[in-house]
């Protein structure tokens, strides 16, 4: 404040002379980060002509996921000429590639219809390098399996060079196994199961690249799976009700809460497992499988939500029953945080299943989370400190303590701050980060109270009188059961104008008010004894007998 007043009274020129060095230093600091860029720009050679952008594969074969999606789309439209571009036909003579490629695409579709399947899209790599952490060659990825009879072969894609750069195509190793697998599965029941059950019109009419009968079979399978899961959960609920009828009521409520999402999730898993074994069209399974996977993620997120909600509810109720409402508040906040994380993970998984690239979204979420964490640094600091305080429990609500220079009764232990009611009846609010960093002295947790009076006898008191007083004091205090151990009564020496006698002991009482009553009673007994023996106390009388006024107020 003084510097501000002095500065305001300076002449204008003097003000500028005082400010200019600081401004120059600030400008120097601001230029430091951009100095290398400026230097590089001044010394860099003239920019060359902009390079043409790298060609992009028109069929979307830049990633394993793109190859699988393109192949499924081509066979769904029965465009086998386009489907052949997703196959590695380099080992086939050019003159035969056109016809042979279309035949292999049809045969591969047949094997996929007869129990083959692609891996879930979320597990297929959507990067140009593919999966580098598997046990396969770096330029080879597995994207599914194909079956012929009882034998199954991994469906592989491999990276090859093309005019547009590296692309992913179905591996020649997989294509070489197609004819043999097709011959083995010609008489497979799985290939003819639906053909035996469904009328011919349902097999000849196509919708979205698959026979109508296959779509109906998928819907029927979904309905039956849900009914079966409903029946299974209903049986489980009955067993649960019988087993926990008189004992674990909370466990029963948790299981009944989980029943709806569990039914949905079991049905989705059942459809995913059974559909390939019915000989359903791969096109129908891929399109319908996307929906089933989304439903499975929704059911999983819903199930996780209810698990956290139910378990958190049980924990919070128990904490409230124990009277630890502050810890219950922290538990409720953590439960909401976990549920928010579940929702975010579920949304990311659903969009990833639908084919959206969530890499940029996750990166933006990370940057946003970092910015939020930096902006809410103090809030997070106080939250972490509150968890530490509530876990360590140096104080509790209602206890009398001294925190730093503040002394009073704890009124509230909150998520952000702690409130203390002082002896002057003022309310002090301390942020939890500051509270946890300060020295805390808790008076309410004293098991015993220090009884330490000093009796200063007049210097003219004779040794016989001192010995008699010491003996009578020890006898008097030893009979009092409120002292857990016999008090120590000693003559400390000879002072200039007094003979100091120290009484050192602890009083076993429940609170400070009771201690004051004991201290008053024993002090009066000591004064009676001194008067009975005809002794004199060194002046001043009342400050010489009993402890000096304590700086530690009562603990309630």
Topology of this protein?
Blueprint: H1 2-8, H2 12-31, H3 35-43, H4 64-76, H5 80-83, H6 94-113, E1 117-118, E2 140-148, E3 151-162, E4 165-170, H7 172-184, H8 189-197, H9 200-204, E5 206-207, E6 210-211, H10 212-243, H11 249-274, H12 282-321, H13 325-353, H14 359-375, H15 377-392, E7 400-403, E8 406-413, E9 417-422, E10 427-431, H16 432-437, E11 440-442, E12 449-451, E13 454-458, H17 463-478, E14 488-491, E15 498-507, H18 512-532, H19 541-544
Helix pairs in contact: 6-7, 10-11, 11-12, 12-13, 17-18
The oligomeric state is: single chain
Biggest sheet details:
5 strands, antiparallel
* Strand composition percent: 5-15%
SS elements, strand count: 15
> Would you tell me the structural class of the helices and strands?
alpha+beta
Q: What order do the strands of the largest sheet run in, or round the barrel if closed?
A: 10-9-8-7-11
Whole-number count of domains: 5
Q: What is the overall pLDDT average?
A: 77
Q: Give the terminus-to-terminus CA distance.
A: 43 Å
